[in-house]
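Running this now, will post back.
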Amino acid sequence: MQAERQVRLFRNGRNQALRIPREFELPGNEAIVRKEGNRLIVEPAAPHSLLAVLAGLQPLAETFPPIEELPVEPVEL
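Update: finished.
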């Protein structure tokens, strides 16, 4: 059986809020909230990966100027 605890609700500006007791703290600083019937479900939000951020970017609409081809200089290793 999961632990439970009664908490008080309060107003924060126009939002209703609650303080999450220490034993129920979530990692990070973002969460997902959804309503299922009369229940509110609060889950930690997955961290944003670099791939997810890059996938959300829009392509650039501008064109880049041509790049002058320079002769390749030999490199001694």
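The CA atoms of residues 32 and 43 lie 5 Å apart. More later if anyone needs it.
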